[in-house]
Amino acid sequence: MLLCGSASARPLQPAKVLFYYPIAVGGEIASVIDQRVAEFEAMHPAIDIEPIYSGTYKESLAKVLAANRAGTPPTLAVLHAVDLHTLIDADAIVPFDEFATTVDRDWLEDFEPAFMVNSRAGGKTWGIPFQRSTILLYWNKRAFSAAGLNPERPPQSWDEMRSMARRLTLRDKSGNVTRWGVQIPSSGFPYWLFQGWVTTNGGELMNAAGTETYFDQPAVIEALDYWNDLSRGDQVHPPGIIEWGSTPDDFLDERVSMIWTTSGNLANIARRAQFEFGVTSLPAHKRSGSPTGGGNFYVFKRSTPAQREAALEFIQWMTSPQQAAQWSMDTGYIPVRKSAWDVPLYRQYARRFPVATVAHAALEHSVPELSTHENQRVTKVLDEALYAALKGEKTPGQALREAQSRAMRILRPYQR
């Protein structure tokens, strides 16, 4: 049987756990991690957790794979949930089923089902959800009021977002834009933001096995046409490639009235905003929905039994209902445990700050984030196609058809 929810009372062997953690969103998350580690170590004196802040998800993956090839991987890492196939193919990680055998299955069954889709493969559990998210639309209520829009009613559809963005875009006497209507970042995680468009247009980017992509399907091309037209046609969205990291700042500085970004930015924006803002699910077209996102805990295969036991203890503690609730309040990530919603402090928080519940409600219509074998190569192909279309170098159809051909060549060895 697999895993219970609270840290055990059994004596633990002394162990040092090298823990790679990605810093990929705004805010002071590193200090939050440091605080959690110190609290855990005080309760578990035999365990030494050493956090290594390893950059973005992409940089962190490159570092752990290089360390794995060199025979010196970390014991534990938080890495992108969609890197599951890549880590398995590299023989880098160990499934929890093989070493977490002392406790019952209730622990895993308490995680949000939508997050477990990108945590399992081949009938085994390879990752434990930790900092998980969806894409949300944030809107500036003050800007809505100034534009004559109802500040309590965000766009519900693609057409409404386009029409509202037209009213929200401001220009000076020379025609220069002083505030954009809407902004969706196209660097950092462009494929993920694009999957929000594809999902709400009723399309899919890949199959469940991660062996096929569907980049050239009509619903996918139509989604990129719409995104591209917001800037090149309607001119209500900044042109070119928009930085992931600067998008929250552009919103906070009121250079843009609506943005798409991760729910993991919620606490950062809430702390810094000098105006009332709202948060809502992505505007629908043919359906509602968003891809899930964020990172999982992974344990590396070269770890010793004592290190695995220590890492498991830390993971169980970090994902306990109380810690999952506190992590959500500190960061804006969605509580990964269903029982976190029963924590009294979190119930009070949700009543006081109801926008925190929006991302959780969106899980009902969520889809798994794009994840394939050779995922870094495949997403790079898609990202390059998005760049080419958004910069006007290729039409959306041309860019995506070429991307589909390239992606399927990469995935051919896995189609058996």
TrEMBL record:
<dbReference type="Pfam" id="PF13416">
    <property type="entry name" value="SBP_bac_8"/>
</dbReference>
<dbReference type="InterPro" id="IPR050490">
    <property type="entry name" value="Bact_solute-bd_prot1"/>
</dbReference>
<dbReference type="InterPro" id="IPR006059">
    <property type="entry name" value="SBP"/>
</dbReference>
<comment type="similarity">
    <text>Belongs to the bacterial solute-binding protein 1 family.</text>
</comment>
<protein>
    <submittedName>
        <fullName>ABC transporter substrate-binding protein</fullName>
    </submittedName>
</protein>
<dbReference type="GO" id="GO:0042597">
    <property type="term" value="C:periplasmic space"/>
</dbReference>
